[in-house]
Amino acid sequence: MKSTDETEVCIFCHTPHQAIKNDNIPLWNHDLSATAGYGVYTSPTFDGALSAADLGGTNAATAAISNLCLSCHDGTIAINSLNNPSNATGGNPTMTGTGAGGVMPAGTSNIGADLTDDHPVNFRYDAALFAADNSLHDPSGLTGVRLFNGFIQCASCHDPHESTNSTFLRVDNTGSALCLKCHNK
Ligand code: HEC
Ligand code: HEC
Ligand code: HEC
Ligand code: HEC
User: Fold this and answer.
1) CA 61 to CA 106: how far, in whole Å?
2) How many CB atoms lie within 10 A of CB 52?
3) Closest residue to atom 28 of ligand 3, CA basis
């Protein structure tokens, strides 16, 4: 999928002016998803549950970094649905190869609006979780991966700006090296 008339690559995600304003997200330009709830990952051994929160809702003030990814990857909102389109095109970019309504087409890139079968996100990875879990690395010494205000988000493992590794991973996952940045087993 690509745009046929938009060359400003950042604009799909950021704008220098008239961004969707709140204090949690970086000058964001892609309209947020209206999905009401994504569910919260649970398992008998998951210790992060107490601080995990549902990412659903349209309130930009409570949006998390993961909501930015989901604004395209939950497959409910058009890829070209921008808050402030570029002056050069004078409107939302023209796209080819999208699904019906301009959304992410069905396939692995469309992860859907149920996150209960995905690696948990939007929970705090702190000293208390480290102590409770027994098989994590101390979050104060993490390298390669990134926490956002102490939380795990999609962008803890992925960097949307960096395509050196496959699927925009922050750390090449050969030998599960990415997983072992946080997990100690
Ligand atoms: C596919 C969406 C996407 C595109 C395209 C994109 N960004 Fe980002 N950007 C993000 C997200 C999500 C974050 C917050 C997570 C992060 O920092 O990794 C972010 C964060 C940032 C930040 C905050 C700094 C920081 O600490 O990471 C800057 C600056 C930035 N982007 C600049 C740019 C520029 C310049 C471009 C174009 C060359 C661009 N971005 C393209 C999604 C995108
Ligand atoms: C940025 C750090 C980080 C990375 C990278 C990471 N994880 Fe996790 N993962 C966590 C934390 C923190 C938890 C919560 C642990 C807990 O409470 O049980 C977790 C939870 C899990 C769980 C659920 C555990 C349970 O008890 O239900 C599994 C399974 C898992 N991760 C596997 C992986 C795999 C496989 C990879 C690599 C593809 C990976 N993780 C990469 C931090 C990370
Ligand atoms: C403006 C819409 C948009 C945003 C926001 C966005 N993406 Fe994407 N992303 C895309 C598109 C379009 C593709 C290409 C999909 C395709 O061709 O199958 C893509 C591809 C990817 C892929 C590669 C999929 C594959 O199978 O190779 C990953 C991984 C990914 N994005 C993760 C993220 C993460 C993580 C974030 C947030 C940090 C994010 N994206 C934010 C639109 C977006
Ligand atoms: C704990 C690390 C981790 C987190 C958190 C994470 N991902 Fe991923 N993601 C991966 C890895 C590793 C792969 C590569 C899987 C593979 O190659 O089979 C991947 C692959 C993908 C792909 C490509 C399709 C696929 O299934 O291979 C997309 C799209 C994607 N992630 C989006 C997201 C979004 C959106 C979020 C947040 C809701 C997210 N990821 C959170 C580690 C993570």
Assistant:
1) 29
2) 18
3) 167
Q: How far is the CA of 70 from the centre of ligand 4 (A)?
A: 12
60-64, Cβ contacts within 8 angstroms, sequence gap of 24 or more:
60/20, 60/21, 60/22, 60/25, 60/32, 61/22, 61/23, 61/24, 62/24, 63/22, 63/24, 63/25, 63/28, 63/32, 64/24, 64/122, 64/148, 64/151, 64/153
| Ligand 1 binding pocket includes 19 (Cβ within 6 Å) | no
The response to whether residue 66 sits with its C-beta less than 6 Å from ligand 4 reads yes
Rounded CA-CA distance 134/157 in Å is 21
Give residue-wise pLDDT tens across range 62-102: 789 999 999 999 999 999 999 999 988 889 999 999 999 99
How far is it, in rounded angstroms, from Cα 17 to Cα 106?
32
State phi, psi for 86 to the nearest 5 degrees.
Answer: -75, 150
| CA 123 to ligand 2: nearest atom | 12
User: Which ligand is nearest the CA of 154, by number?
Assistant: 4
Name the pTM for this structure: 0.97
Which ligand 3 atom is at minimum distance from the Cα of 71?
5
